[in-house]
Amino acid sequence: MEKVKLFINGEVVTVNANNDVVEAVAVKGDKILAVGTTEEVLALNEDGEAEVIDLAGKTLTPGLIDAHLHVTTIGTNTLSVSCKAEHIHSIEDILTDLRKAKENTPKGEWIRAWGFNESKIAEKRYPTIEELDAISKEHPILVVRTCTHISVANSYTLQLAGIDKNTPNPEGGIYEKNEQGDLTGLLIENAHMNLLALASFSDEELDKAHAIASDLLVEKGITSIHDATSFGPRNMRALQKAALEGLLKPRVYAMVGALNNAEIIVERMLDAGIYTGLGNEKYKIGPVKLFLDGSSSGPTIWTKEPYTSDPNNYGVHYYEQEFVDKLFVEAHKQGWQITVHAQGDAAIDMILNTIEKANEVCPRPNARHRIEHAGIATPDLIERMKKQGIIPTPNPAFLYEFGDGYLKNYGERTNHMFPLKDYLEAEIPAAITSDSPVTDFAPMRGIHAALTRKAFDGQEVGANQSIDLMDAIRMYTINAAHASFDEEIKGSIEVGKLADLVIFDRALLEVETEELLDVQVAYTMIGGEIVYQRES
């Protein structure tokens, strides 16, 4: 017989329609049995066999849902050199770590680094191809920028990929060259994305990566993820296997696409005859996805007006309107949820044009099409999102890590970047995401940024769009569940829903905003099972 768990004397943030805060919750098996006062819940322990957990005033919330991250990359990055490590302050620091990695890497095997950000190191530049060649010409070396849209490669990597100075730029990408016409090793947007297929990981490495990522995520209270698949079908197979076999504990809603040649993956899935929703509570197929533009911190996003920092730069876009319309109107007809990476207002405008056409040709109530990131979302674009029932997935944590660059590159447009308050006023159920490993997956980082709108250097970035804590929690729970058609089974603490719960080490609703970053998760529960417990 399943033992009942009773959580009493707490600050239970239910995230129900009334935002009720109660004292206690009862769990039986993998479901929530009762919600109410401590007295009401204790009354269920008639036989005295229940496990009683005294919260002692601490907060219990629904499990947190990150509606856009790259779980495989989070894991594989732990197998690579981190450019975000505390000791990294210069190019030489990175080169030193790459040299150390070479010592343990057989010739011909990959040496990878991740999280590079030229604005955060002394030289304010990228490593050069010559510097990487000096480390090795017998190992492929790839240093990936924090946005994951740009990288620097050594000569050996370019040779493996068949890239030389005469290779034409791919559509939506650039192989950078110097004044003499020689390759610098810098790969921008699709030039970088196409190379990632070559720099793939083994099946054993993927299993290890998923197990590592799982432990990291549940430690932060993340019980479900919407995975923005990085490496195409092979990655999806490994991810499904990891989820169904329990190697990856958080529930998975898997987007269908890839960082390179996503349109080919989407076309194949349309031919396969399946559509969004196939799967179960552990692993489910989500939307088909394309990239429409670049990185907000690169900066390579596609904007209607030129960058504030460069009057000749409007960013990068991947496809023409006609192509996106043809592919995604058909996907819409077949029952797919559709989504795109769209950071700039021009890219958002493009996908809105497509969705408007799709709904005109084939009206589909409750299609819940999405826009990943939706960076510069001006009021006119938000009004169109509202009319089409679109769900944006903004990244407030980006404001902390990249806010100084946003102010430089986009100026007053930062008042409409990740506009959480505007979404609230328009009653659009935006779901906060990290896009990790682009930035920290810890939900408290994103929640703190949603409240403060401050960059790491203290500058405010669109302070007019700040929201309060309860609204931020809703965006990390019930709104994210809504974005995957799961609000009836998770995302709030209500009877009959899955017992995906998080206990924090203090009362969240009583802490000062700046203290949020110190908040730790005490317990994480998925389906009634404790999958993480913090050591005291």
Shape: globular
CATH architecture of the largest domain: Alpha-Beta Barrel
Instruction: State mean pLDDT (0 to 100 scale).
Output: 94
- Main beta sheet: 7 strands, parallel
State the total count of DSSP E strands.
23
Question: Which structural category fits the helices and strands?
Answer: alpha/beta
Helix content: 25-40%
- The poorly predicted ranges are none
Count of DSSP H/I helices: 17
CATH superfamily of the largest domain: Metal-dependent hydrolases
Strand order of the largest sheet: 8-15-16-17-18-19-20
Measured distance between first and last alpha carbons: 31 Å
Q: What is the total domain count?
A: 3
Percent of sequence in beta strands: 15-25%
> Could you please say which CATH topology of the largest domain applies here?
TIM Barrel
* CATH class annotation of the largest domain: Alpha Beta
Oligomer state equals single chain
Rg, Å, rounded: 23 Å
